[in-house]
Write a structure and sequence with these properties.
4 helices, 3 strands, single chain, elongated, alpha+beta, three-stranded antiparallel sheet
């Protein structure tokens, strides 16, 4: 998670749109991801599956209680529930342990990722979060961008003698 947070931070600081999205789970309680929020690098939004008419259990007529969390480098409004006080079905709990849950999870992830990326694009141009004078990025040895970066030392080449 530290590497993912470092990539997000770097992209955001250079003005590139950065987006992380996944189902709302304990994954988001990670210290490195939390630092993105506390350092004002990321904006957090919550997106309900029922808003996009998708569910992990399409055979169930009740709307899905599942939601996705998104961190983005630009502000994006949450996609709140559009159901009128309807009881939602806890489909995450229902599919636990079922053999076909991976395929359906992938399908819902694809639908939600596409919908959320469209929400990011709806918010138009990237707002400059930092001035030109604060665009210096320092990555110390404990925050290497790639796991093998420390092992890949630049090699000095010999010039051929004539």
């Amino acid at each position: 998670m530290r590497t993912l947070a470092t990539w997000f931070r770097t992209a955001a600081l250079i003005g590139t749109v950065a987006v992380l999205t996944a189902p709302k789970t304990n994954l988001w309680m990670n210290e490195h991801l939390g630092n993105l929020l506390s350092d004002n690098i990321a904006y957090e939004s919550l997106h309900r599956c029922c808003r996009y008419n998708t569910s992990l259990t399409p055979e169930n007529p009740a709307p899905s209680a599942s939601s996705y969390t998104m961190y983005s480098s630009i502000p994006v409004n949450s996609s709140l529930c559009k159901c009128d006080k309807t009881t939602h079905f806890k489909d995450c709990e229902h599919i636990a342990g079922r053999s076909n849950n991976h395929a359906r999870r992938l399908e819902v992830d694809t639908i939600m990722t596409s919908a959320l990326w469209n929400r990011v694009k709806e918010h138009g141009s990237i707002q400059k979060m930092h001035t030109e004078s604060t665009r210096t990025i320092e990555i110390n040895d404990s925050q290497q961008a790639y796991p093998t970066e420390g092992a890949e030392k630049p090699k000095k080449r010999r010039r051929p003698t004539s």
